[in-house]
């Protein structure tokens, strides 16, 4: 009998994992002025209620992180750092996915291939094993898994139901020889998944992950799914997001009832310097202990979105994190982070 369970993100957490930006990554030497302030604000929010674990490129970079956090008025008591060379900052996809196996917590090290070998990934693929070697999670078990999976590609209700997209998990660059049934069997084996809800529509312009579900649709709770939407018929996303909406309306929860659905309207279009539309979405939010961190984009819809989250999570603090600079490299708040669930599920 498989006693593995993938917890929901809203369950009790031990820590949030970050891989701090550095001059060797996508933002280059300008990272101090662009992406680093986003990381500082994520850290400020997280340490209010739990630990944050930060990967630093080398000892000099580690000292820099301590210095900028202290200068920003952040107490370091709940900040843990370790040294791990990295290609990029997207901890959601190169970080471990943690499951419960009976009374054990296990860090699952799935293969990471740079979203189908689009980018350098060899350093990032080693991050889970380096994290384990750091001793910062010494109570947790570890399992290397011969299956390609990125954390942003899945969302789970903690009760065995997983939400994902055909366009990501079934892409040729990841699982060319696997059927949908093969993939479901692997998800059942490694994550304890009992059923998979597949979306086959919806992908945001500028998205380079092949349609990660954490940009499109997420569980608010076991009976509620929030999803990216637009009512603007002139928006290039209109048809695909409406098709996704119809699929979501057809899904049933674990007791056979339709899900409550919550629209998260897309922010106004954001473009890079070359005129390329960037994949900004409010679905890329993050559960923390006692909080929900929500990406915002200096957009008129920000306040509406924050009000939506406050209405649905009255017992959690809702914190907006400006992700305008994060989206420059095609990811947002959830993409930058990975939760480490509490050691015990009891």
Automatic annotation (TrEMBL):
PANTHER family: AGMATINE DEIMINASE-RELATED. One of its GO terms (molecular function) is protein-arginine deiminase activity. Its EC number is 3.5.3.12. It comes from Candidatus Berkiella aquae. This is Agmatine deiminase. It comes from the Bacteria. GO terms for biological process: putrescine biosynthetic process. Keywords: Hydrolase. The gene is aguA.
């Amino acid at each position: 009998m498989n006693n593995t369970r993938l917890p929901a993100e809203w369950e009790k957490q031990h820590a949030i994992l970050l891989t701090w930006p550095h001059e060797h990554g996508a933002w280059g030497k300008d990272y101090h002025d662009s992406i680093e302030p986003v990381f500082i604000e994520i850290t400020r929010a997280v340490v209010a209620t739990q630990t944050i674990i930060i990967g630093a490129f080398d000892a000099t970079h580690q000292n820099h992180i301590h210095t900028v956090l202290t200068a920003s008025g952040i107490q370091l008591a709940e900040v843990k750092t370790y040294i791990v060379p990295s290609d990029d900052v997207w901890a959601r996809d190169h970080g471990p996915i943690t499951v419960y196996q009976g009374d054990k917590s296990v860090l699952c090290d799935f293969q990471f291939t740079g979203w189908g070998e689009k980018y350098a990934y060899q350093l990032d693929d080693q991050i889970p094993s380096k994290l384990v070697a750091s001793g910062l999670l010494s109570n947790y078990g570890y399992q290397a898994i011969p299956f390609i999976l990125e954390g942003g590609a899945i969302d789970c209700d903690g009760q065995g139901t997983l939400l994902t997209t055909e366009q990501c998990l079934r892409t040729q660059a990841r699982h060319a020889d696997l059927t949908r049934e093969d993939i479901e069997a692997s998800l059942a084996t490694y994550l304890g998944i009992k059923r998979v809800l597949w979306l086959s529509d919806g992908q945001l312009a500028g998205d380079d992950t092949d349609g990660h579900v954490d940009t499109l649709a997420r569980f608010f709770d076991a009976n509620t799914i929030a999803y990216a939407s637009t009512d603007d018929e002139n928006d290039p996303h209109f048809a695909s997001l409406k098709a996704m909406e119809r699929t979501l309306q057809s899904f049933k929860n674990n007791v056979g009832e339709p899900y409550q659905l919550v629209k998260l309207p897309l922010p106004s279009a954001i473009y890079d310097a070359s005129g390329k539309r960037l994949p900004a979405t409010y679905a890329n939010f993050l559960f923390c202990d006692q909080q929900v961190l929500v990406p915002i984009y200096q957009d008129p819809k920000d306040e509406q979105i924050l009000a939506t989250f406050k209405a649905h999570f009255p017992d959690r603090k809702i914190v907006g994190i400006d992700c305008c600079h994060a989206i420059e490299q095609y990811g947002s708040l959830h993409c930058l982070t990975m939760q480490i669930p509490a050691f015990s599920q009891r």
